[in-house]
Write a structure and sequence with these properties.
Structural class: mainly alpha
Radius of gyration: 24 Å
Number of strands: 3
Oligomer: single chain
Distance between the termini: 20 Å
Order of helices and strands: EHHHHEEHHHHHHHHHHHHH
Strand content: under 5%
Largest sheet: 3 strands, mixed
Length: about 350
């Protein structure tokens, strides 16, 4: 997943939120859309690596599709300009906010019926009528009462009717035991997230993996935790636990990319060598490039390195190209070897 270049045509040096945005845009927009827009405003002047669609999804516990919807919403509203390269979002430009512009455009809310963060899909929650049946049935009411009470205690706030229906979906439709649901909520809260969206995401993943007991869930989580700390050791990190953003990155490397530990450790070593410090975003750029190149073994990395050296020799023999001008704050990354390596890997993939 490539980083996004963000250019700013507003005043620089501060995170500014015009009154017109509050008066005319914010009341009509979905809450998650507003959060992402505000985060983009802050990111322009933040001393952190440029965001990616994936990192935005991790920050707000959304899917990448939800983030894409939010960006397209603000594009339709006239506040963002999105540019793509090879069908992948490459650059975001923040445009001026004005009441006049708002009055001359169609309301994107009317054109976006399935907004991110809206009422959860019916297939991931039981109906209100079914919830009443479960609460009244002699066979289930005690377990249902226990599920809802324990979740309330762990989360520290009363459950909304939607929260209840979603938890009972796990119980009634996926046939999770009350004990497993209790452990699921405890597990998610212990990882720093009491979001029902996150709890459901983990619960559905456990179901897909065939986990149907607390014993199986603990065994799976113990193995995952061991992998987390092995990766931490590769980065030279000790004395603390992973934070949610780091966990999301490590889950992507282990599960989505399917990399063995040796490859992740190699990316960590290259990150430290190049940056002098542990940097998960930098390691992500390396690992995503390897994933795109279908790397599965250390021998595949060696082959890519040799191809990289060959291309570099050919480039050095050719006349030097004029350096590309930065597009702005997020175009100011130094052209390090591994970033050049990523670009070359992508070219090799396209030429195969």
């Amino acid at each position: 997943m490539s980083t996004l270049s963000i250019r700013d045509q507003r005043l620089a040096g501060a995170t500014m939120l015009p009154d017109d945005f509050i008066d005319y845009y914010m009341p009509r927009a979905n809450g998650d859309f507003v959060k992402i827009y505000l985060y983009l405003l802050r990111s322009v002047h933040a001393q952190t690596p440029a965001p990616t669609i994936s990192s935005l999804a991790d920050v707000f516990r959304l899917t990448e599709r939800d983030v894409d919807r939010a960006l397209r919403y603000w594009q339709e509203a006239g506040l963002l300009d999105l540019k793509y390269k090879a069908e992948e979002l490459d650059e975001i430009t923040l445009l001026p906010v004005s009441q006049k512009l708002h009055e001359t455009r169609k309301d994107p809310v009317l054109e976006t019926p399935a907004a991110a963060g809206s009422e959860p899909a019916a297939e991931t929650q039981v109906s209100t009528a079914r919830m009443k049946e479960l609460k009244a049935d002699e066979k289930t009411r005690e377990e249902v009462r226990n599920i809802l009470y324990v979740a309330h205690r762990y989360l520290g706030h009363p459950l909304s009717p939607t929260d209840m229906r979603r938890l009972l979906y796990l119980y009634d439709n996926l046939h999770m035991s009350a004990e497993l649901i209790d452990y699921l909520v405890d597990y998610c809260v212990s990882r720093g997230s009491g979001s029902m969206q996150y709890i459901m995401k983990v619960g559905l993943a456990w179901h897909d993996e065939g986990i149907d007991s607390v014993k199986d869930a603990k065994a799976r989580n113990n193995l995952t935790t061991k992998n987390y700390y092995a990766i931490f050791r590769a980065f030279g990190i000790s004395g603390r636990s992973p934070v949610p953003g780091e966990i999301a990155d490590m889950d992507r490397w282990l599960k989505e990319y399917g990399f063995p530990m040796k490859i992740i450790e190699e990316a960590a070593a290259r990150t430290i060598k190049q940056t002098g410090k542990p940097s998960f975003p930098y390691a992500e750029r390396i690992l995503s490039a390897w994933h795109e190149a279908d790397v599965r073994r250390m021998a595949d990395i060696t082959a890519l390195d040799e191809q990289h050296k060959t291309v570099q020799k050919e480039q050095h023999a050719a006349p030097a190209a004029k350096p590309r001008q930065s597009a702005g704050k997020f175009g100011n990354f130094a052209q390090r070897d591994d970033e050049e390596h990523r670009r070359l890997v992508q070219e090799l993939i396209r030429n195969q």
